[in-house]
Specification:
The chain contains 18 helices and ten strands. It is α+β, with helices and mostly antiparallel strands. A hairpin with a 5-residue loop joins strand 3 and strand 4.
Length: 505
């Protein structure tokens, strides 16, 4: 705890949110705010009369952190629940994503004035199905959708046959689902009045059309778009399953892995590693601005927003504390992101991202220092192997809890696929740069097609191997026990007296 003081705040803060989630129906935001003020006043009083290291002050600070987590989660939950439309026969909102075809309906994601969403299902036209395709193709992000609904239900209630699915929607900003029959809805063009988020989605759609019209085949286009502009709607389910079984599904979602590669390219462009130390802070600021511009251009998907915010905080900590990747900067990013949106706690991508980053921050310096190989390429490969193994180990219990399987070949899959990911993303950057130069652009298009197709072939081959995955679906208690064991092993390794004596001598 002495080496990681922010854990004293993170643990009770997170437990407060978990407690609020379990007993949210009994929580009162005003009462929690009053309790927070009382404990905060008590903490300031103890700070004046006692030393910060005193146990009583520590308990008061941890109690305050617990109550803040509980208050933020309760406020978010009640705010979402209050956004459910009271009129269950009518719904209205701005179209935030292009319509998605389902077996018997079309799914429309509608954004309300307060930023929450309604998932509207509209029955298909059984008599003239081709009219549906023409009609829904004419819709644009930002159009106003009005519908008379036969059924509208809030997603707050997690009971019943589809309770888990409704809870998932609720924690991802969708406060209600609705159903309307074919012909019982209309729309008004309203793109000129759209919000910043909807404008970002429109830009992502425009980038998709540029990809679509410039020579990429269907197989390559879906992978390239997923990895560069965050558009995954066209990826076949078979491909998704193959990437999941091979343990590389994170490659298809814009996340910290992709942002890390982009940061590396941007650092090279801004000459960060060759600049004097005082100019590196300016370089970090330019990198942050570029990252947020990129996040906006790709439609601001939640996974990319998390990764961009995390790297923003990491770069700021690097500028202030001159620390590349520390547990402190990860802890600050964790707290800030949960303060912004407490429902991130339920997001699998958020959980996996921070487990991976936490494992790297805990052991990266130790791996680099104890790596016996000093040759540049071999040193990089061995370090990559160790970091990949760490991330796989720390995320395995959570992956098993959510998906019911552990990809046994994840380390090999990541090592084999990583060079292709770098190649695809670097080629994609050049593809956009030389969009105007037909001969060069044609060569880059062929290279993108080959890279994406090769990645799919590799992943499908690995996922089809015997024992590629191990079926294991632990319950919550078993998962927590696994992480308790990992924490004890981490503490043992980090506080090994033999290694400490070696370093001291």
């Amino acid at each position: 705890m002495k080496n990681y003081p922010l854990l004293r705040l993170i643990i009770p803060f997170t437990l407060g949110m978990i407690g609020a989630n379990l007993f949210v129906s009994y929580m009162s935001t005003p009462l929690l705010l009053i309790l927070c003020c009382i404990v905060l006043a008590l903490s300031f009083f103890l700070l004046k009369t006692l030393k910060p290291q005193d146990l009583t002050f520590g308990i008061a600070a941890m109690t305050f952190s617990f109550l803040v987590g509980m208050t933020l989660y309760t406020r978010k939950h009640h705010s979402m629940a209050d956004s459910t439309p009271q009129d269950t026969t009518f719904c209205q909102g701005l179209l935030s994503e292009l319509p998605t075809p389902k077996p018997h309906s079309w799914a429309l994601n509608l954004q309300q004035d307060d930023g929450t969403h309604i998932l509207l299902y509209i029955g298909k036209n059984g008599k003239v199905p081709e009219n549906d395709s023409i009609l829904y193709a004419s819709l644009h992000i930002g159009d106003t959708i009005l519908a008379l609904t036969r059924h509208l239900e809030g997603t707050e209630n997690g009971e019943g046959e589809f309770g888990a699915f409704r809870k998932h929607l609720f924690h991802h900003g969708i406060c209600a689902t609705a159903y309307a029959t074919c012909g019982q809805w209309t729309f008004k063009p309203g793109r000129q009045h759209q919000s910043l988020t909807l404008f970002a989605k429109e830009i992502q759609t425009d980038l998709h059309h540029i990809y679509e019209d410039n020579g990429l085949n269907q197989e390559a286009s879906t992978i390239v778009e997923a990895m560069t502009i965050g558009r995954k709607t066209d990826i076949p389910q078979k491909t998704r399953n193959a990437y999941e079984h091979a343990g590389v599904s994170h490659v298809l979602a814009l996340s910290g892995f992709h942002v890390g590669i982009i940061v590396m390219f941007i650092q090279a462009f801004f000459l960060k590693n060759v600049l004097p130390l005082r100019w590196q802070r300016v370089s970090n600021l330019l990198i942050i601005v570029t990252l947020w511009c990129y996040a906006f251009m790709t439609g601001m998907p939640p996974s990319l927003i998390r990764a961009t915010l995390m790297f923003t905080l990491l770069l700021l900590c690097q500028s202030i504390f001159r620390d590349n990747l520390s547990s402190h900067s990860c802890a600050i990013a964790f707290l800030v992101m949960l303060c912004i949106n407490p429902f991130y706690l339920h997001d699998i991508g958020f959980q996996l991202s921070f487990l991976s980053v936490a494992s790297i921050s805990l052991f990266s310096q130790q791996i680099m220092a104890e790596n016996p190989i000093r040759n540049g390429i071999l040193h990089f490969l061995q370090s990559l192997l160790c970091i990949t193994a760490l991330c796989t180990l720390f995320t395995a219990p959570l992956v098993a809890y959510h998906f019911g399987r552990i990809p046994l070949l994840a380390i090999a899959s990541n090592l084999i696929l990583t060079p292709f990911v770098y190649l695809l993303m670097f080629t994609s950057i050049l593809w956009w740069v030389f969009l105007w130069c037909v001969p060069v652009h044609s060569i880059l298009t062929d290279l993108l097609n080959w890279t994406a197709s090769t990645m799919n072939t590799i992943v499908e081959t690995i996922s089809s191997l015997p024992y590629a995955t191990l079926k294991w679906h632990p319950d919550l208690l078993t998962t927590l026990l696994c992480y308790l064991v990992l924490l004890l092993l981490t503490y043992r390794i980090k506080n090994n007296p033999k290694k400490r004596n070696i370093h001291d001598t």
